[in-house]
């Protein structure tokens, strides 16, 4: 079965924003339940980036969940550089058909393929590189994009990074390399939620004017609201339209950490803390879906 | 003691360059990356003939390791080239997460290893790289001894699926192994059969072990000399067979005692066959500026040091 004829690919093309919103709500339910079950994990960034991953895997990317092909020739590829938001990645992979949704219940448990941070050696379909130690994903994504060019493969590579992650020096090595080598089949996204473990990014890292910085590095830069699919989908289309013109594309995506759960929203305090029983119930009430299919 | 005639001296890094160029001709999936050291790594011929498969990364080794990991996704076989120091210590976490833990088919090719880098001094003379790399689960660690063996090893690792650390160096050393050798990863090479002591050497110390063997023969000592070009996976059978025969062991390498070949063999013997062992290696010290020969002498990495270690270990043998 080729990617172009798979049922998933056909459904992707016609999926409405309303349907995507339902999927996003279900993914958010998965996230809070996963981290609650093991009393660990990172709900804040996961909830903030849910809309992006749902948009990519259920609408934008051409990809083939089954059988999983590590090389992904002929497919769009996604890399998660900020691996701590693994709950959203696992939920989206499972719900788009890479592995059984029931396996989400093994998250962070002994002998699971769903490690705390994404890993490949357990052979979880959909994961192409380990991530967690920050700052490495952009380089890997650029390499994969260059492999696509060598292979004459016209599909694209997406990579998501956190904004705090931009404090890692390797990111800037990669940021300098990609435009210089005209890696124009790459869309990088920065989750600009303004938060990191010890507090707001502007107090800790001094990220400054990211648009000016990436433009100075010769990236094509656009900005998007990452928590409104009505705005995010056109932004992703815009980003794709800018590919193939000699420069990589950077989306500075504004999100709220913890989006969708009111008591988590906008605070770094929910970066790596799980909700208790009462908080879980409250979160699930806020994340209602028409037909919940909790694992 | 067998004779090991040679007609020329060459650097092992040139063996890498020649092997890489040959791979360019024979394996379309082989790609190469370099961090601003094309000449030092002898990658010029590959760059000239296969420019579309070469990536100049600049002085950005962390990015280079990530790029290499990414290039494997799509079926490429990336060979990274820079000095051993910048191939390991500088980029340890990138190798650990993006390459080793991720099981990526990257060949980390490292020149100017050890004190024989010479005058540039200790900032560039890494003596910890074997240890750093062998500690990573599933990382294969290879340290060939001369030009021909380095060329053969370079070609062989392209057919091996998984991450490899290939270590070589700058000085010219005798080319004494066959040009047409088949390089078998993980297979020790018997150079001289002997009965009195087992000398396990790697890299530049293999030739020093041969020189030591001649000096020992003059003293009536019949040394068994084995070239351990693959430190991980170690040829356990070859080591144990020889050690059980001679009942005493000397290891020799251009590396720290901690974490090197001697450390691997000491672990093996302690578990399987406790026997006296002496290590010819750098003893918990950084290097310094000097000529390669001066440094090898000062840091106890020459044939005289091996002879002394043999005499010491034979005296300890029960």
From TrEMBL, chain A:
Keyword Nucleus annotated: no
- As recorded in UniProt, coiled-coil segments are none
Source taxon at top rank: Bacteria
Record organism: Hymenobacter edaphi
- In the UniProt record, the signal sequence range is none
Q: Which residues form the Transketolase N-terminal domain?
A: 22-290
Could you list this entry's UniProt keywords, alphabetically sorted. Thiamine pyrophosphate
Carries keyword Kinase? Answer: no
- Family annotation (Pfam families): Transketolase_N
Similarity field: Belongs to the transketolase family.
User: Could you tell me what this protein is called?
Assistant: Transketolase
**Required cofactor names:** thiamine diphosphate
Q: List the InterPro entries.
A: THDP-binding, Transketolase_N
From TrEMBL, chain B:
Q: Which cofactor does it need?
A: thiamine diphosphate
Keyword presence, ATP-binding: no
Domain called Transketolase-like pyrimidine-binding: residue spans: 10-175
Q: Kindly indicate whether the keyword Metal-binding belongs to this entry.
A: no
Name the InterPro entries for this protein. Answer: PDH/Transketolase, THDP-binding, Transketo_C/PFOR_II, Transketolase-like_Pyr-bd, Transketolase_C
Keywords for the protein's UniProt record, in alphabetical order:
Thiamine pyrophosphate
At the top level, the lineage of the source is Bacteria
Family assignment? Belongs to the transketolase family.
- Could you tell me what this protein is called? Transketolase family protein
Organism (species): Hymenobacter edaphi
